[in-house]
Every structure is written in structure tokens, then in C-alpha cells.
Amino acid sequence: MIDALIAARKAADLTQAELGRRIGQRQTFVSKYELGERRLDAAEFIKVGRAIGADPFKIMRDAEAS
User: Fold this and answer.
1) How far apart are CA 47 and CA 26, in angstroms?
2) How far apart are CA 36 and CA 39, in angstroms?
């Protein structure tokens, strides 16, 4: 699911820093979960997905289906 969030962020042409600002975090927060150094809880996952403009629930459904 994190790979899907990364792809969605890049498709939205957002930098890690810009996404961080949108969610009220630093760029390092985004970097750490994208590198797998930190996990996102469900609420954070939804917040990030929405900030990117992606449907976080669709990402979850797609991950479950694969």
C-alpha cells in the first residue's frame, strides 16, 4: 500500500516536502514511511491519501485484491 501512496504522490507531482506541509508534518516524516522506516497507522494513511488526492480506501481494496 505504501508503494501505491508513493506512486500517487509522484503522479500528483508532489514533493515529499509539499506533502509534509499538507499533512502538518516535516518532509522527514514522509521520507521515513516511504522508506519503510516508519509505519503509518490507519488514520495517517487516510490523511496522507486524501492530501495526495488519492482514494485511500481504493488503495486498500486494491492491495487486498492483489
Assistant:
1) 14
2) 7
C-alpha cell at 37: 522506516
**Residues with Cβ within 8 Å of residue 56, at least 6 apart in sequence:** 45, 46, 48, 49, 50
pLDDT for 59 equals: 95
CB atoms within 10 A of CB 60: 16
> Using one digit for the tens of pLDDT, what is the confidence trace for 7-66?
999 999 999 999 999 999 999 999 999 999 999 999 999 999 999 999 999 999 999 998
CA–CA distance from 54 to each of 3, 46, 48 (Å)? 13, 9, 9
The rounded distance, in Å, linking the Cα atoms of 46 and 52 is 10
Q: Which domains does the chain have, with CATH numbers?
A: 2-65 (1.10.260.40)
